Amino acid sequence: MTLAWRLIAGALAPVLPAWLRLRAGRGKEEADRLPERYGLGADRPPGPLLWLHGASVGEALSLLPLIEAVAAAAPEAQFLLTTGTVTSARLAMERLPPALRARVRHRYAPLDVPRWVRRFLDGWRPDAAVFVDSDLWPNRIFALSQRGVPMALVNARISPRSAQRWAQFAPGLARAMLGRFSLIQPRAGDDAARFAALGAPPMLPPGDLKASAAPLPHDPAALAALRAACPGPVFLAASTQPGEEAIVAEAHALLRETHPGLTTIIVPRHPERGAEIAALTGGTRRSLGQAPGPIHVADTLGELGLFYRLADVALVGGSLVPHGGQNPMEPARLGCPILFGPYTFNFAERTEQLLRAGAALRVDPPDARALAAAARHVLIDTDEAKRMTDSARLLAESLAGTAERLAGPMVQWLRAGHHPAPAQDERESDTP
Question: What angle do CA 401, 405, 410 make, to 5 degrees?
């Protein structure tokens, strides 16, 4: 399977530039930075370098507390952060603490073509590498292993379906990749069990980097303006997926029977769906500068912290449909009562902890009537709402510290690093 993947990736290399240009035309890539996808654009700083990779927004942002922890313990360390999406690149660099920005370089990750990966590693020569979640690419992992670069897989997550597919179609490849990691830290106990079944070596106790993240940021002036524009209660549907907005709009109509001044704010997971959602719900759009109406579609990026602070109750999206749910610890840190539907398998352990602590309510069945009933309960019973938010905040505080625990071995790796030079027979031309 390893050889097969290398051959497939190499065979696809001639058509990948056209595919990347097509993505750039759709706004999925930055056209002037496409060479980075071929492993070009290295600008290695002097000193020990830690490479961290998070494919999309949530994964990239979860690495920020780890960068901060390593930077505090090793003032000499430099960082290369790679991502796979335009949105994750922008938000991750925006949310870096200003004092760290000079020590962090961002690049788009090279595609998993053997010679592009070699070119990337020849240019950057990382002393250690960190991958988050389940972004496992064979050529990348084996090339690092061959160079003796220690690797960590953190917040390691694998769904039952993915684990079954690996076990069925490529058990040897899964075992070989996982065996190359010097450190694996599963996100939760059920993830640990699935990785162990695939042949992972002994792992660290579970821990969640997302629980170490700072509260989502916000603009205080924008918050004050929204509070003035929404004098009644605010119901938030955060990070929604297709199929959920219609349920939310129907629940909004039911809630307005008892709360006529209610404003419902829908924040889609993908802001480019804003026009579609506004047409479906009759809502106003934040991206167009429109004032909030009874339903307001917040089709912007990086403002979820603002809306969680504004809301009197919030649905964590992706949970009314079989998407698996988004991170419920974000509202837990911000004093916002939490609702989620029955589909929370992406964060199963966290949602169960919140339910056991009385810090959240589950909406089941995932329909408008049940959603309206849960939101109405929280809006009417303010004492219950406060108990929920206090319990959620205590749970979030108890889960913190993962970044600091992981920083120790990474600092050791960096200080033992040797900044390897590229082998002469691995040097590549500047063409894809």
Answer: 135
Mean pLDDT value across residues 69-87: 96
CA distance linking residue 8 with residue 258, whole number of Å: 59
Q: For residues 285-306, give the mean pLDDT.
A: 96
Residue 349 appears among annotated catalytic residues: no
What is the model's pTM?
0.80
Average pLDDT, integer, range 18-44 = 96
Torsion, Cα of 228, 277, 309, 261 (10° steps) = 40
Q: What is the DSSP string of 327-374?
A: -THHHHTTT--EEE-S--GGGHHHHHHHHHTT-EEE--S-SHHHHHHH
Residues 343-395: tens digit of each pLDDT: 999 888 899 999 999 999 999 999 999 999 999 999 999 999 999 999 999 99
State the Cα–Cα distance between residues 393 and 168, nearest whole angstrom: 41
184 bridge partner residues:
153
pLDDT digits (tens, 9 = 90+) for 103-141: 999 999 999 999 999 999 999 999 999 999 988 899 999
Burial class of residue 412, CB neighbours in 10 A (0-12, 13-18, 19+): middle
Annotated active-site residue in 29, 59, 68, 330? 59
Q: Give the Cα separation of 345 and 351 in Å (integer).
A: 9
User: 133-147 as b/e, with b when 16 or more CB fall inside 10 Å?
Assistant: bbebbbbbbbbbbeb
Helix (H) or strand (E) holding 240: strand 234-240
DSSP β-bridge partners for residue 153: 131, 184
Q: How far apart are CA 51 and CA 375, in angstroms?
A: 43
Q: Token pair for residue 349?
A: 């352990």
Band of pLDDT at residue 8, cut at 50, 70 and 90: confident
Angle (CA) 233-366-357 rounded to 5° is 70
For 250, how many CA atoms within 13 A lie in the half-sphere containing its CB? Answer: 11
Strand partners, 339: 315, 361
CA atoms of 106 and 97, how far apart (whole Å) = 14
